[in-house]
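Our preliminary data section would be incomplete without showing what the modeling component actually yields. Below, a chain of 180 amino acids is followed by its predicted structure, encoded as tokens that our downstream tools consume directly.
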Amino acid sequence: MIGAYYKLVTLPDEVRATYKIRSKARLDCISFSDMVAGSYKGLTNFVNSKGQLFFFKTPCRDFVNTDSKRLAEWSLTGNGLNFSSIYIDDIDFPEIGYGYPNANRLLSNGSPNPLFEYRNDGYLFLINKDYSEIELLIIPDGRNLISSYYQKLIDGGFDDELKNLRQQAKDFYKYEGLVL
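Predicted structure:
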């Protein structure tokens, strides 16, 4: 059911200095796993010319226009795109969230939405307390049922699959000096 797994972290100061990364809001992908190696292409717009995949943890109030009851606290952005807001509906599980890509064919500036092809995907997020580590789970074509998948994750229904994906995870980009 989970199509791909990505682990995003805030790199330590020494590693960020080595790569001239100034932003403390940047989350870099250090490992990934997908059901068919390299099959998920929905994140290619967030990979830079060096081959690094990263997002910025951005407060939604800075750019999302919606009903305040529907506004998430954080969003993952990059390359001028909002990848997804991170919604947390169950206050008993603040470390688990969900989201999905913008489903509009065009962005607000009138340019084509590069995530439109993946508009039906759903995302689940496992988050540590300060959002310095986020595990992203991609559910292909899971957008319409994301609240059910969210509940399944809370209930432990993905535990075995998640354990396997973590064990199979490979480096996305090898950061010199990164020790986990």
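The radius of gyration is 16 Å. DSSP finds three helices and nine strands in the chain. Preliminary results of this kind motivate Aim 1 of the renewal.
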